[in-house]
Design brief:
Shape: elongated
Order of helices and strands: HEHEHHEHEHEHEHEEHHH
CATH class of the largest domain: Alpha Beta
Strand content: 5-15%
Number of helices: 11
Mean pLDDT: 94
Low-confidence stretches: 287-291
CATH architecture of the largest domain: Alpha-Beta Barrel
Radius of gyration: 26 Å
Length: about 290
């Protein structure tokens, strides 16, 4: 059954942990759907995890629409949230609304996510006024990490922590249905979670939030680097590398493919094929080519 926004809010009230995970393509969407997650995030982190960029910043709207469409085609039960990429919502309310609409109409997402507060709260109001649900994102905001001094934890000083709390209230008042807190001290994240009515999803922010999100490629061990807040639940990178190396060795040794990997042809059809080739070969030998 498709998860709805009212059900997400009920999960916070009932203190039922919310499971959120990223997915960037159709096979991943199908697998995480079958695994029973609650929310699937088509993140602009696809820029670093599947598109080969050095950061999330180069990820484009067209790329996000394509990735979102591929995920929503296979996700039947989870709520699908798509990231608005860098500069797709910063210039004006109208542009923010138009790009959010693309992720819903063309991509098939149920909601969108954007980073920051302050002036961004106005964008949240504009998008939600258009009937599109918005998830907020505070703490470490990768799109503007340069302004934060790099990819580092946020809210470690009391004034900064209070500022995060104020921003969370601001986004809640603007209409966000949920909030991601990234790389915030566990005690700060838990305090914010207790004091807001919207569900809070943590990543690197401790167990006191209403739910957790991880990047699929991190928890599967596909990415070579391990972040402090990631638990690797598999080592598929090693498994894939070993499988491809074994395949390459089999091809080079001519031990693959074998008979069971081929399709049969009837003996009379094969005989007719051989006769046709012999006839054509004989004709070719008698043909002079004028170069």
């Amino acid at each position: 059954m498709k998860l709805t926004l009212p059900r997400i809010r009920e999960m916070k009230i009932e203190q039922r942990p919310i499971v959120m995970i990223t997915a960037y393509d159709h096979p991943a969407g199908r697998l995480v759907d079958e695994a029973g997650v609650d929310i699937v995030l088509v993140g602009d982190s696809a820029g670093t995890n599947v598109l080969g960029h050095s950061s999330e910043v180069p990820t484009t709207m067209d790329e996000m629409v394509l990735l979102t469409r591929s995920v929503t085609r296979s996700c039947r039960n989870p709520l699908v949230v798509a990231d608005l990429p860098f500069l797709s919502y910063h210039v004006s309310d109208e542009e923010a609304m138009r790009n959010a609409g693309r992720l819903i109409k063309e991509g098939g997402a149920d909601a969108v996510k954007l980073e920051g507060a302050g002036a961004i709260a106005g964008r949240v109001r504009a998008i939600t006024a258009g009937g599109i649900p918005v998830m907020g994102h505070l703490g470490l905001t990768p799109q503007t990490a340069t302004m934060l001094g790099g990819m580092r934890a946020q809210g470690r000083g009391w004034q900064q922590a209070v500022h995060l709390f104020d921003q969370a209230l601001e986004l809640q008042a603007a209409g966000c249905f949920a909030l991601v807190l990234e790389c915030v001290p566990a005690q700060v994240a838990a305090a914010i979670t207790r004091r807001v009515t919207m569900p809070v999803i943590g990543i690197g922010s401790g167990a006191g939030t209403d739910g957790q999100v991880l990047v699929l490629h991190d928890l599967l061990g596909i990415n070579p680097e391990t972040k402090r807040f990631v638990r690797r639940y598999a080592e598929l990178g090693d498994a894939v590398r070993e499988a491809v190396a074994t395949y390459a060795a089999d091809v080079r040794a001519r031990t693959f493919p074998q008979q069971e990997h081929t399709y049969p042809i009837a003996a009379d059809e094969l005989s007719a094929f051989d006769s046709a080739l012999r006839s054509r070969s004989a004709g070719a030998e008698n043909t002079l080519v004028d170069w």
